[in-house]
Amino acid sequence: MRILGVDPGLRRTGFGIIEAQGSRLRYVASGTIVVPPGLPLHARLKVILDNLREVARDAQPDQAALEKVFLNTNPASTLLLGQARGAALCALADSGLAVQEYTALQIKKAVVGTGRASKEQIQVMVRHLLTLDGTPAPDAADALACAICHAHCAPLAARLQSLAPGTLSTRGRRLRTGRLVS
After folding, report:
1. Is 127 helix (H, G, I), strand (E, B) or coil?
2. Minimal CA–CA distance to 177: which of 102, 67, 121?
3. Which residues form the catalytic set?
4. Where would I find the beta strands (DSSP E) of 92-149?
5. N or C, which end of the chain is more exposed by having fewer CB within 10 Å?
6. CA end-to-end span of the chain, whole Å?
7. Cβ neighbours of 158 (radius 10 Å)
8. Is-contact 52 92, C-beta < 8 A?
């Protein structure tokens, strides 16, 4: 399965492509879409949209994973980040990809093992997990981490969905952050 991970941002949007075969991960490509400063908002969003469409067209991924928006203390910043995510979602949907979204906490736990991991720790673990020669740039590393998170979580989610209704007793229980809780 080829996975395109995206770390959206209005100034810098990271992308990373990996291939997953069981628990084996292989690096394919990564990079950062740098939006030229000074452009009006609609033009900045179009840069993200067009570039991610091109990445998806060239890489031919099977699935996509996107980082969810976190609630920032500045509502205006959160809104702008949400618009960048919207442009990324549109590019992925327009490319015909199924998109799964993960929080930063889920991504950090899946890659580093703790939800309080720093950017540097993510970069080091991405380098280690994908056996890269060098350390990827922060935005590309975050996107690769998102793809790695999806590679780890998607098989379990697919398995849970494939179970016949009633096979897994969930009465009085619900799924929270990928875990069955009471």
Report:
1. helix
2. 102
3. 7, 67, 139
4. 98-102
5. C
6. 33
7. 9
8. yes
